[in-house]
Design a protein that fits this description.
globular; eight-stranded mixed sheet; alpha/beta; 193 residues; 8 strands; 6 helices
């Protein structure tokens, strides 16, 4: 059983948290929106993506406290990446999440970006922020991977387990870790990139 922190409890983070919880992992669902966290704690799904009964039955610890995500084995970042007024992706949420994760990161952990970003953003945007906040070095002290979210909001026919999951890693160790972790919850198979 691994300790996972899912950073961002939206339409991507919540199904991931529930899937990993169902596999017996110790899961923390982190979001900065305290009202959303309260609704999760009350057994409601403010994202309207899953049955609220699943939220009530889960053992996920929903929190807005950064101290609750310390010393996780895996940090999965699932924050939004909206388009700004000039049509460019706004990666400020990814950077803020990277700083939060970096401040909690310990040697041996794995950081996974699952937000929708352009090729190279994990290495060029997220990694420098996590390394600066943690004082640790990717590939030496912690692993880094990317797995694009593959969910279609509101599509009840195909859920998380039913869509082939793309996984990629900073190095072979990271790719192995992502493959092992996601292999537990994805029935449709994995594609290594």
């Amino acid at each position: 059983m691994a300790h996972l922190s899912i950073v961002g409890m939206g339409y991507v983070g919540l199904p991931l948290a529930l899937a990993f919880d169902a596999e017996g992992h110790d899961v923390v669902g982190f979001d900065t929106d305290e009202r959303k966290i309260e609704r999760f704690r009350d057994g409601e799904d403010p994202t309207d993506e899953v049955d609220s009964d699943a939220v009530r039955r889960s053992d996920i610890r929903f929190t807005a406290s950064e101290s609750e995500i310390e010393a996780s084995d895996y940090y999965i970042i699932t924050v939004p990446t909206p388009i700004d007024e000039s049509g460019q992706p706004d990666l400020s949420y990814v950077e803020a999440a990277g700083e939060t994760v970096g401040e909690s990161l310990t040697d041996g952990s794995t950081v996974i970006l699952e937000s929708t970003v352009y090729p190279g953003a994990t290495r060029e945007v997220l990694l420098p922020v996590v390394e600066a906040a943690s004082g640790l070095k990717a590939g030496e002290d912690f692993s880094v991977g990317y797995s694009p979210e593959r969910l279609v909001p509101g599509n009840a026919e195909k859920g998380l387990a039913d869509i082939v999951k793309i996984v990629s890693g900073y190095d072979d160790t990271a790719l192995d870790r992502l493959s092992t972790l996601y292999g537990e919850i994805i029935d449709a198979g994995l594609h290594h990139a």
